[in-house]
Amino acid sequence: MASEPRVGVAVFVFQNTQDGHFVVGRRKGSHGAGTYALPGGHLDFGESFEQCAAREVKEETGLDVQDVRFLTATNTVFGDTGKHYVTIFMTAMVVANLDGSVAEPQRLEPDKCEGWSWCTFAELRKMPAQNKKLFAPLHSLMEQRPDVCTSLEAPAKAEANRDLAHRS
Prior knowledge:
This is Nudix hydrolase domain-containing protein. Residues 4-141 form the Nudix hydrolase domain. The protein has 4 helices and 7 strands; from the N terminus they run ββββαβββααα. It has helices at residues 49-61, 121-126, 136-144, 146-167; strands spanning 6-14, 22-27, 36-37, 40-42, 65-78, 83-94, 113-119. A hairpin with a 4-residue loop joins β5 and β6. The longest helix has 22 residues, at 146-167.
């Protein structure tokens, strides 16, 4: 049975602004099991997008984030389950450890996620060809808003080009 649309929040959690790596995990135990997704979840009543993003990232990965910002939104209907989601995509930066090292995501909800890893947009784009299915809202983002992904990639590409020029 079809239900009212729900609001989900998904977060591109970046290591830093230059390298373009963000957290991705493989879902399990709920709709979208076996697909790759960003940390995120449902928006609670009265919660801002930024609050929801920081809460969900902390609950799922143990990571503290800063500089949480709105990116875009997508509209996804899960035909097989009758669910309809408006997904708010956010970006955030990982808060470094006290020694300056990058904090690593932890699998805090083993019933919902097989594990987290760092990924780039180039790797994300290759996943479907490698028989790695993307969670429907993330797939919708890639289809509905390809310009957004390209804009997020730009700082990492610029840094890589600077590194290559510096080595020459």
